[in-house]
Amino acid sequence: MERKKIKNIDSHKIFLIIIDLVGIAAGSMIAAFAIEEFLVPCTILDGGIVGISIMINNKLGVPLGVLTVVLNIPFLLIGAKKIGKKFIVKAAFAMIVFSVFLEIFEPMGSMTSDYLLAVCFGGVILGIGVGLVIRFGGCLDGTETVAILLNKSFKLPVGQTVLIFNIVIFVVAGFIFGFDRAMYSLLTYFITSKVLDIVESGLEQTKAAMIITNDSEEISHQIYKRLGRTVTIMEGEGLVSGKKVVLYCVLTRFEIHELKEIIKEIDSSAFIAISDVSEIIGTHVKKTSRLTEEKISQTEKKQTL
User: pLDDT of 133-147, one tens digit each?
Assistant: First the structure.
């Protein structure tokens, strides 16, 4: 039995690894398509090593696919010693696939010569590609590994570090190709970043609701019954109002309206604070268990007595 369990666990891990690699490969291919078919023909730069590679490719004619691999190697070697091997392997795989598809898409004609269309569609498609790579645990740019290392050593925010790198690259590009190209590149970067966030975190943006009420049992029961969401119940004390019960619940933005309706029906005087949640770790968002069902049934019994 134990051997079977070990085999099942191993096969499950292998399956997950394959899914990750397929997702990374798909994202790398989409990103390469955006670079070669929208950005490069209009001399619009991406950030990081890819942006530097586009500049060198434009001036010296060195193949873009070769440049992205060669320039990223030092960053991978540095990161291999201080960042997890799993991340580095996935990053290397993503960069190799990305470089191969850059060479495949390079002979094809550009999708458009209009700069605004190239910025909009190139930025969106690039964001989808990079978002998929990151979502499945990969990385396309060596500057991100440097940003992660700086974050570990000096606590510098990864996002801000990457942004500073890219602004420097865009300023240099402005002197080489003209500042109109630099501004187009910066606009593309912001579009890509926004789309990347959507792809990475999902379309269902998660919200957190904090409810201060005197009818905690009934509200939590209805939230679970109608939304299928579990609720954390905490004790609080107001400066003026005294002791209160605080409910904390994580849900999607599409469920906010129903939550408001539940609270209006039960306790119209309840105080509600709704905020964005950037990331969730664990399985507490939507869970049905025997223990929860028992608590719900107990609450229903109390209400009928």
Answer: 888 888 888 777 777
Residue-wise over 95-113: b if at least 16 C-beta within 10 A, else e?
Answer: bbbbbbbbeebbeeeebee
Closest CA to 195 of 252, 123, 118: 123
Residues 242 and 276 sit within 8 Å (Cβ to Cβ): no
CA-atom Rg of the chain in angstroms: 25
- The secondary structure of residue 172, as a DSSP letter, is H
Structure-token match 């490969």, residue found: 25
How do the residues of the chain divide into helix, strand and coil, expressed in percent and rounded to 5? 70, 10, 20
* Separation between Cα atoms, residue 80 and residue 72, nearest integer Å: 12
Q: Name the one residue in this structure whose structure tokens are 């007595």.
A: 305
Q: With 0-12 CB in 10 A as exposed, 13-18 as middle and 19+ as buried, what is 90?
A: buried
Spatial CB neighbours of 294, under 8 Å, sequence gap ≥ 6: none
CA dihedral (38, 44, 48, 54) positive or negative = positive
pTM of the entire structure? 0.71
